[in-house]
Target: Radical SAM core domain-containing protein
Amino acid sequence: MASRWSFIAINPKILMVTSSWPSPVRPAHRLIRASSPHNTFLVTEQCDQLCVMCSQPPKKYHADLFEQFETAAILAPNKSVLGISGGEPLLHKEKLFRMFERVARLRPDVTFHVLSNGQHSTKDDVKQLIEIGTERILWGIPLYSSDPRTHDQIVGKPGAFRSLERGLAVLMQAGASVELRTVVLQQNRRHLGALADFVFTRLSFINVWALMQLERIGYGRMNWATSFLDTSIDFEPISMAVDRTVARGISVALYNFPLCSVPKEYRQYAPSTISDWKRKYLGFCKECNARSACGGFFEWYSHDQVFSALGPL
Ligand code: SF4
Model:
């Protein structure tokens, strides 16, 4: 059967995919922006968790674009790092891994950054992960507490912590690259020190532990009042976690923190991480000397309901 999808080169920098459905229902998706280092394929909106801070609340149905993603990855600019997100991408593990295998063969310079809840890898995946190439995928895996009950409550799924432990063991066995991600919240504020100890004792194979600020969109916006931790006036849980982790030789990073919300001695851990297409700066940033190094704010940031102590550096 002929494919319902086709590609349009809008210009040398943009690759779009469109369908043969009749107008006005014809969808078009921009898959790659060659000028941007932040290209992400949203491979599914289905998910098996309901995280309190989810920026992309799950949907029941799945629109399958793997064929198109694979073509786009093969046509991507040299040495592209392509994000893979959802939903939970590994709910479609077979297709996803097949795409990785094909792209790895044709475009060994292209690598992936996969955001996954880490619960869908089994021992049977180890061989395939090694064949795809462990240097080809950085796995962004969330862990919110070393206390199973707290982690499960945050992700809205009983048993999630135990499944995640098994998934992380598989990634460790495969020698995978892992970026452990922890959104700092009111719910896990008092757990961050214990989580730092857990990272050292149980997960020291990871490449980096990323402590992240909350994104005010989706469920994050809905649960903002009960979840957002104003680290511009309450940085102590973060500094304790960073100190413990750095002292033990594990890399740590602060994602999505405006630089002026971070005490001076910790700014070295806070790179600019908000993607260019969803980043903004505020009026007072015009007078700031640190703007070029600062990631600023998410486009959907609301200045009346967030950090209370910010200002130009
Ligand atoms: S004033 Fe703006 S640019 Fe400067 S550190 Fe704060 S958020 Fe960043």
Notes: The CA atoms of residues 176 and 248 lie 21 Å apart. Confidence is low (pLDDT under 50) at residues 1-5, 7-14, 19-26. The longest strand covers residues 5-11.
